[in-house]
Description:
With 304 residues, the protein is α/β, with parallel strands linked by helices. It has a single domain, classed as Alpha/Beta hydrolase fold, catalytic domain (Rossmann fold, 3-Layer(aba) Sandwich). It is built from eleven helices and eight strands. It has an eight-stranded mixed sheet, with helices on both faces. Strand 1 and strand 2 form a beta hairpin. Helix 2 packs across helix 3. The N and C termini lie far apart (46 Å).
Amino acid sequence: MNAAAQSNHGFRLPLIDLSNNLTRRHLLRRGVASQNYRLNAMPIHLYRCPNQAAPGQARPVLLVHGIADSALTWAAVLPELADIGPVYAVDLPGFGLSGAPAGRCSASFAEMVELLRTLITDVIGRPALVVGNSLGGWMATRLALDAPRNVAGVIMIDPGGALLDGAPSWQDFVELARVKNLHSVRRIYRRMFGQSLFFKLLYLDQKGFQALWLRKPVQQFIDDATEEIFLRSEDLRRIKTPVGLIWGLEDAFLPEGSFEFFRDNLHAMETLFLKGCGHLPQRERPREVITFIHAFAAKLASMN
């Protein structure tokens, strides 16, 4: 049983595990490689789709998932981006098939951002277009601020990390993320996905979804998050890297004001605001996300 199939609380995730295994097999049949590395003293897993771009035109793409998720969230998107360049979808430390630092169940936010930098320098080998959802978008933003030479561009998809009014702004989110009961699970469903018919299928495995959130890497990240790692409006305004923003307008998962925070403070080169879409556009509206990423990559190429 893989890491996605067993939580640190001992719960089995039968339906979610079945879905993940089928998705993984589908990717492998499509020629996507499953690769393991040791980076920054951590065992890290990623999926890699070989480059299909014309010679001399390849732009690497790095896909970064959100909290309580894995690289498989990009399954519908990953193979369709290979004509931009080689595509990498990483399992963050403690998530998916990746391990955590020795003797620990999770990595800190700073360690995960540094892991992305190492992945770009040591594995990808050149600046990448970094696409991140939720926590992944937050990390991609921080990477663009701290290591701009490693980042050719950033596309944020419903990114987290807006400081807003500080800790009180996030209190309701923290309480919800504790998933103390199945009522909390159903609240997360409604806030993440609105009335999406596709995600109503998740109701078939509410306990499995709860177990994903109760895993130690998730809860430890929530426990350890401090205001120092959050993004302020001035952070967004000083990003020099080309930025794109995708937002599902039915997303009520992040604290109120998050959308306006990013919309109003980013100097976004391109935006896509999706009506009727929730927190995971890459799963809910993959075709539109793929089209946006292609257009953004083409605009990057024209700037060089």
